[in-house]
Amino acid sequence: MIALVAGRRAVIVGVVGLGRMGSAIARRLAEKEFSLVLWTRDKKKLEVLAKETGGEIASSPKEVAEKADYTHIVVSDDHALYEVVAGVGGVLASNEPTVIINHVTCTIRASLSVARIASLHMFSYVEAPIIGGPSAVRRGEAIIPCSSDDKELCEAETLLSLGDVIYLGRPPKALAAKLGFNHVFLSIVTALADAFSLVEAYGIEWENYVNLVLSKTWIKQVIERYGDRLRLGSKASFVARLAGKDARYAAEALAELGLDASLAAAVANHYAAMVREGYGDADYPSIADFFAMMGRRLRERKTEP
Questions:
Q1: Which CATH architecture has domain 176-303?
Q2: Measuring CA to CA, which residue among 26, 54, 14 is closest to residue 138?
Q3: Where do the DSSP E strands lie in 128-226?
Q4: In what order do the strands lie in the sheet with 12-16?
């Protein structure tokens, strides 16, 4: 059924992928009274969110694209992006072109590949990674670097409803901006992790180190920014395994340009250590507490008889 607003057809918006960020986008767009078409692999989550938002359930990304004017893609990585866009039953299998809005923090290689494939199928492509967590999206306060061959697509109401959209030019400029931003904040908390590991190995509890030393410096602002999220067990808004993925993608982007990728690679390796130890779903700033724990373990082994 075609939705009508004041006698005119309403804009229909699709959301493919309903994890933390995809669900936040769907809820925000529902609050802004967009008609929604939703798809995700988790059928129970799909049914619950469709009921909450009044959205229509689609059987595949293809069906979303067939019904939606704009299709927001909110999945986890390159592989998932290729699958929902170009795989069997993917968006590009639709006979009705849609505007693909890619929110995925993927590799630059993947974004450009999807953009080329979309163009061959006569689909418009928008690169719109999101800076800010699901809560920022729900408030309409996210920061959204945006790239497209058509600047006007970055001015679509479905995007503006989510936050401050900043047009940067053609792809992959928006994705480069997002990878760079993530590299900055992940490097900061990883540096804290190394510092906590070092002092713990020499018998200084990291909380005391913060109170006695770091709180007297500009680093106090960083500590206060993260607060209890530096501890293992805090509620996750952005998990360690995805942080590691983003760091790895930043390293790949730098290396492909012939630039030094050693710092980004080191950050990725730190998060890989968390994943190996079973902390992949922990909140990303808790890497600080995780490496403090590694430092304590080292100290304890050295003091064993």
A1: Orthogonal Bundle (1.10)
A2: 26
A3: 142-147, 163-169
A4: 56-57, 35-39, 12-16, 70-73, 99-102, 124-127, 142-147, 163-169
Q: 147: which strand partners?
A: 127, 169
Cα–Cα distance measured from residue 29 to residue 72, given in angstroms and rounded to the nearest whole number = 11
- Is CATH 3.40.50.720 what the domain over 4-170 is classified as, yes or no? yes
pLDDT of residue 5: 42
Rounded to whole angstroms, the Cα distance separating 59 from 40 reads 9
User: What does the alpha-carbon distance between residue 131 and residue 165 come to, in Å, rounded to a whole number?
Assistant: 10
| Whole-number Å distance between alpha carbons of 19 and 42 | 9
Stretches in the chain below the pLDDT threshold 70 = 1-9, 304-305
**The tokens 């939606």 sit on which residue?**
68
**Are 156 and 70 contacting, i.e. CB atoms less than 8 angstroms apart?**
yes
